[in-house]
Structures are given as C-alpha cells and as structure tokens.
Amino acid sequence: MVIVDVVLETYDAVDFTAWPIAEPSSDRLLALSGRMSSVDVGTAMAVIFSYNKIPVTHAADLTEAHLDQHLAEAEALIAPGGLRFRDTTTDVSIAPGCCFGLENWRDWWDVTRGQEPWLGHDPTPHITHLGQVIRLQQDDGDSPSVEITRGELAGLLTTAQQHFSGFLDLARPWATRTTPGLADQLITALDQYFMITVTE
Fold this sequence. Notes:
This protein has 200 residues and is α+β, with helices and mostly antiparallel strands. It has 5 helices and 7 strands; from the N terminus they run ββααββαβββαα. The strands form 2 sheets. A 4-stranded antiparallel beta sheet has the order 2-1-3-4. The protein has a 3-stranded antiparallel beta sheet with strand order 5-6-7. The chain starts with a strand and ends in a 7-residue tail after the last helix.
C-alpha cells in the first residue's frame, strides 16, 4: 500500500525560541496533518517564519506589519519540503527533493497528466511513465521504486490536500493563541501561497 505525507524539513527551526516547538525527528521531516500536536504546529510555523526570514523574537511582538512587510518585499511564502511517498509493503520511501519547496506541491498533478515536472534534487525524485503506471525512484538507476497508477496518484494527491487542510485547521487556533495580532492574515497567507484549499 502506498501512502503520502505532506512533509516540512525542520532544520530551520533549530534554536528557535519565540514559541514552543517540538523535538526534531531523526530524519528532520515533520508530517503536516490534522493530527498534529500544538508544539508540532509551532515547529511548522517556526520553519515558515525562519525560512522566509520574518524576524521574530517574541510571539507577542508580532503584528500584521511584520507579515505585510515581508509579503510586500518577497511576494510569497515558501518552505522546504514537499510530498513523501511510502510503500508500506516494501518500506521504500521517496522523499521530496531539495529546492523544490512545499509551495510547489501541486506540480505533482502534472505527473497524473503524463508529464515529468522538475521535482528537486539531492535526493532527486525520478519519474518513469509506463503506460498508466508511474514508477517513482529516489534517483536514477537501480534504486528501489514505488509504483502506482495515475488514478492512484490522483487519489493520493487528494489525500495530501486533506492532510494539508487539516494542518491549516490546526494552525488557525494556534495562531489565535500565539500570534493574535496577525492570526487571520497569517492563515490567509498560508492558504494562498501554499495553495492548500483551492481546488485543482
């Protein structure tokens, strides 16, 4: 059985102290979903703030002006991560490639249309189309693979959106408690720039 996780790399949360965060996992990947703890949500938000260079020393000091200024200058929010596919039968995992970014997760829909979009590097997710079957490998050559049909991939992407939407549902009360000065604006920006709830 193949499952999908929406994952965020947590290296940028190291030494973050503006609000409580969780201890990092050994692989430094945090799965986003509606089942996260409050400190896991805090970790995800710490990564997003740090990676986008939004200055924050104390959560209570944050206002809409901080986010307004960043979005005016950068015109986006980005985050390291993407989609991770795992075959629970063979224990083969395909992790997101570097420099692809969580903001690009919807590019996987192009794969369901027979395309081979760039999905990052080091490690490089490699796609081979075999009729209606898609072979995913972490690199070219003889590396272990995960095989799914285009229809199965479409279903997994719908599941990924549900996980992402679940994270957004948890982020709203977290932001209301932690950064009340910009809670509404922050949730709107997350949804907009990571294209969470928009339909394909």
